[in-house]
Amino acid sequence: MDAVFEEFLEQFADPILLTGLVQVAAAAALAALVVGISHLRGLTLERELGVALVRGLIQIVAMGSIVGVLLTVDFVWSGVILLGMMIGATWISKNRGEGLPGVVRVSFFAIVFGSGLVIVTMTLAGAIEATVRNLVPVGSMIIANAMQINSLALDRFKSEIADNRAEIEVGLALGAPPTAVISRHVETGVQASLIPVIDSLKSLGWVWIPGIMAGMILAGENPIYAALYQFVIMAMIFAAGGLTSMTSSLLIGKYVFTDAEQLRRIETDSSS
């Protein structure tokens, strides 16, 4: 135990950290420029942007500081670590659907199902090595993207309900089943949530060379294999995101109706 703690502390004594702090300062200055422009333009995003930047820095440094420790634990702990990440992803993602009934349990189930299925399948297929060193970083990437796509799906679905409440209630009054009147809005939410990852796939290797591929090439890997593996990563992200957003939208679409097939009031609904 003492050896693990010593290894943890040694990370902070590395001289390379000074270089990293200089680079952080430069990146923070550019980020501060965006925050300043947001304030001048009246976009009212300063607080959210500022909190996101500070929170992101603290969280990534905290994760980086314990990676060395994580790499020494038994493989079985990988599942516990990834489950913890899924719980965190649920907590962050549900904020975009705040006010929607059942949003926490729906987000948790959707993220666990979407990202979990992809992680298990691709680990069995050998695309993700069954080691803590590989499973945790790659798994976290899949979970994070599933979280982002789920957030987009919930946000768009919530807007669809708010903007089309009268139309939905008319459909229900005319005797249409809830699944029929809500289906178009569920589809819109899923489509909107997948736009970023679809655009990323379209631009892959043309507009941008992703970090994993670039890192593998710099490490001396075969460039073609690096390209193939990067595509596998993007396909995993798309699959996890698609499964997550579809599951989330379908489930939340059921929760917004009462047992009497009436549309529930959404707390943040503009019509409330």
Report a brief summary of the structure.
The protein contains ten helices and no strands. The protein has helices spanning 2-10, 16-40, 46-70, 77-93, 103-124, 132-163, 165-173, 178-203, 211-218, 223-255.
Describe the structure.
The protein is mainly α and 272 residues long. Helix content is 76%, strand content 0%. It is built from ten helices and no strands. Helix 2 runs antiparallel to helix 3, helix 4 runs antiparallel to helix 5 and helix 4 runs parallel beside helix 6. The radius of gyration is 22 Å and the shape is globular.
Question: Mean pLDDT, rounded to whole units?
Answer: 82
Low-confidence stretches: none
User: Based on the structure, what is the oligomeric state of the protein chains?
Assistant: single chain
> What is the terminal-to-terminal distance?
56 Å
Helix count equals: 10
Query: How is the biggest beta sheet arranged?
Result: none
Radius of gyration, in Å, reads: 22 Å
What amount of the residues lies in strands? under 5%
Helix content: over 70%
What is the molecular shape?
globular
